[in-house]
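Case study.
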Amino acid sequence: MNMIFFLIGCSILLALLFLAAFFWASKTGQHDDTYTPSVRILFDDELMAPEAEKPIDQAIEKRDEDHT
Amino acid sequence: MLQENSVLIKQHCFHCGENMADEFFLSDDKKFCCLGCRTVYDLLSKHNLSNYYAYNDVPGQTQRSNIHHFEYLDVKEISAQLVDYEDERRTIITLYIPAIHCSSCIWLLENLYQLQPAVLQSRIDFLKKQVSITFRNQEISLREVAELLAAIGYPPLINAQDTGKTNSGNNTERSLITKIAVAGFCFGNVMLLSFPDYFGLGDFEREFSRFFGWLNLAFSLPIILYSGTGYFISAWNNLKARRLNLDFPLALGIAVMFVRSVYEIVWETGAGFVDTLCGLVFFLLIGRWMQQRTFHHISFERDYRSYFPVAVTTIKGNKEIAKPLGDLKTGDRIMVRSMEIIPADAILLKGEAEIDFSFVTGEAEPIKKVLGEIVYAGGRQLAGALEMEVIKPVSQSYLTRLWNNDAFVKPKNNIKTFSDTVSRYFSIALLAIAIGAALFWLPTDLHKSIASFTAVLIIACPCALALSSPFTLAAAISIFDKSGFYVKNTSVVEELARIDTFVFDKTGTITSPDAASLIFSGMVNEEQKQLISDLSRNSGHPLSRELSKHLNKASIYSVDSYTEKIGRGVSGRVNGNYVKLGSSAFLGLPLINSPENSTVHVMINDQYLGYFMLKQQWRKGFKELTLKLGTWADLHLLSGDKPADKRNLIPFFSDSANLHFEQSPQQKLDYILQLQKNGRKVLMLGDGLNDSGALKQSDLGIAVTDNVNNFTPGCDGVLDGAGFHKIPQFLQQARDSVKVIHMSFGISLCYNAVGLFFAVQGQLSPLIAAILMPLSTITIISFTTIAVRAFARKNKLL
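After joint prediction, the assembly is written out as follows.
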């Protein structure tokens, strides 16, 4: 039954870990705005794909091609 | 069906959804109401950002009046006060953008880097309507960022109160959440560790009991030393001020629980009350959080600085230089453009001044000023640009002097809440019972005497009592929120229930600023109406615009030999007819007995046809509102305007002696003070700078506004104009909420009585305490929430 001391120690350590994670989240402002992320996640991210990294240049190139 | 749909689409602007005027702008087969909307569309489609229009129909806002000046952001000392962070490479700034309203806005503003590569990141806080932008300051200036935002239809609103902003509000909320997290963590662990003891331990498990006990004690330390400290501090401060509030029995309960737990665990006489202690603090903190939680982000502590711009354009030689508002000195030459606010008392040097003082004086009609006249600060210039010379610095001008008046400086009396009143008697009764129980057992059993004394203080710890007010009022606030009534804090709801006198401001409060109606007296036929409409369309004067809107005719004829005397009238040849519109003096009429309201006289081919009269319209439901409120409370009217509407208003107010016109801001304040001296609880409804003193002085000051993001003076609540007719329902709901608080106080006292029954006998086991405390808490939380919502349904607020 002495195992129980070890197990309780483990569980408290784990709980402390979660508490620390919560502190970190709170400190980095993750609870400041709880609404916007719920909208943000629904956006399609095709424009943020790698090939769109320089959208301005691409758009200009495309426009120039269209002109010629 | 399909055709009908397409017709509908044609009539609305693709960008902002406004009804299309007869002329429109085309781009990519899409129609736009104005050049501004089309420009935004072109800009976005050029940068592959057309998804903006995919997430929502008509996500934009009309760009008809999109003149924004951000030159002042180039001035180092101004921009330094606005940015959050700046180094040699990057600048981070948080800007308030009132136009943010849908998911398209979030998408577009967070994809700002596609429009301008120098923007590294932009994050939206939707509820606060703020965007936080990080940009490379070598490549783009703050001014260019602001201009970029304005170009895509999201002009940031920057006012003088933004300079020197603080984030203190955020920090206190964060620290409360951290406290709740610690309390919750301890509570959960302690509860788990206490279970074996509640269920009874076998003999050979006794060694665990000690271990669990000491562990529990360790978990209670953060509760006492960190999470619960607020209660000790508050109780101590209140005792010093010779007040007994609810924090006193709470702090006493917490302290007694801790001491008794330490004693029991150290001497191994019992399991202690650590479980109840942690649970108590945890629930109490949640209640406090509910009380502080704001559902919206309206600033209630605004002063005149949030009405004024950050910077003023001054003229030196031939150059225009932006200067911070505070640096404006006597003798400076300033430039005030159309729709800008006059920042300081100044002499008019150049330009046609037509100034809207409705916010400052309550006067609905624009006032004209001639060259050389003194113009007081606060008015909004409606006509073209003005050049003026400052005669008094901003802090000493007429308007801001009012703001430095005593009524503004002294803090408002704290609203006395029901729980404050009750807690005094509660604390005394509690101490009496505890001492009584101790004295009863003292002669026979010293140990039992101490046990019963501490048990009474533990079990009667008014947790449920402390939670009933915050939960009831928070529920009421969230219901108010849904109807467009935003209040500053929970005690406003309690105060609202006590109001017996209503004071209304006129302009902008009971009149709707947009819904003015024109009434014509005289005779015109349709053809003549067409001529009038075509002529008035050419003028930018508010009355002319109102007139062409009212006549609602498509333009047919063009106007020849058009002349306009600003503020007096217009004339021109339309389809061969000579049409004149304007004041009676402009038309050369004898000064006939025309009403005082703004009138536009009509003359076609030198024949007088009659006049249009602008009449303010009452807000929707005003009549029903006064009828209903009149039975509950006294109604008063304080207007800064001329008594032109007095006759129309008498039917609404039961006592015509309560109607007061031409009141200065100071007189309004004094009037409220007089009412309060007669023992009245006054609610003031106002909208502008002119009643800010009265709003502050009254027991409850509510600002009525049609755009919650516009300037509203410092007040206790903001009411959206659309919810104006619901005021009687709000009042009823507030009264019902107070009833709910009374009921839940009753319920929690019942729980206390049950607990006390065990406690006075000195038989309180930790198990009973551990059951009673959470049970009473949950009962109260669910009862208050359900009851408030039920009342809201009854009051048709849900």
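Observations recorded in class. Residues 727-760 of chain B form the longest helix (34 residues). Chain B touches chain A at residues 46-49, 51, 55, 103, 106-107, 110-111, 114-115, 117, 123-128, 170, 174, 177-178, 181-182, 185, 188-189, 193, 205, 208, 211, 215 (CB under 8 Å). We will return to this complex in the next lecture.
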